[in-house]
Design goal:
With 159 residues, the chain is an alpha/beta fold. It has a single domain, classed as Rossmann fold. 49% of the residues lie in helices and 21% in strands. It is built from 5 helices and 6 strands, in the order βαβαβαβαββα. The strands form 2 sheets. A 4-stranded parallel sheet has the order 2-1-3-4, sandwiched between helices. Strands 5-6 form a two-stranded antiparallel sheet. Strand 1, helix 1 and strand 2 form a beta-alpha-beta unit. The radius of gyration is 15 Å and the shape is globular.
Length: 159
Amino acid sequence: MNIIQSGINVKNASITIIIARFNEFINKNLLSGAIDTLTRIGQIDKEKILTIYVPGTYEIPIVASYIANTNKYDAIIAIGTIIKGSTDHFKHIANDAYSNLSRISTKYFIPITMGILTTENIQQSIERSGTKMGNKGSEAALAALEMINIMKKLKKINN
């Protein structure tokens, strides 16, 4: 039986972080957590991290698609915050962002990890951006590091 598992140290990886400016007071903490994890735990040089700001979470997939198509990066981390309001807008933005990012990831065989919060209120967002519930940006970075290694191992098997 063959088993593929991986660690999180990927010194030579290039990663793109796409971050929404909307709800930036939350997203900046997610970004900080992601960069800290990539550099401190993943041992990635800051010069190998491209950070792109977009207006909102809805705009993340088009930039992710462009980056994935360049074939220059090993992973993409999506960072945004969608807080439920009084309309269905929340659901549409979240569903479109997640489904489009998933489609892009499988189309281009590039890990795209989700540091996108979908919360009921601002308090939940604050809790998930570095306080009581951890930092989802950091968790997305950890997932990206592991997935980079897994994808490298899969490519070796098939070559």
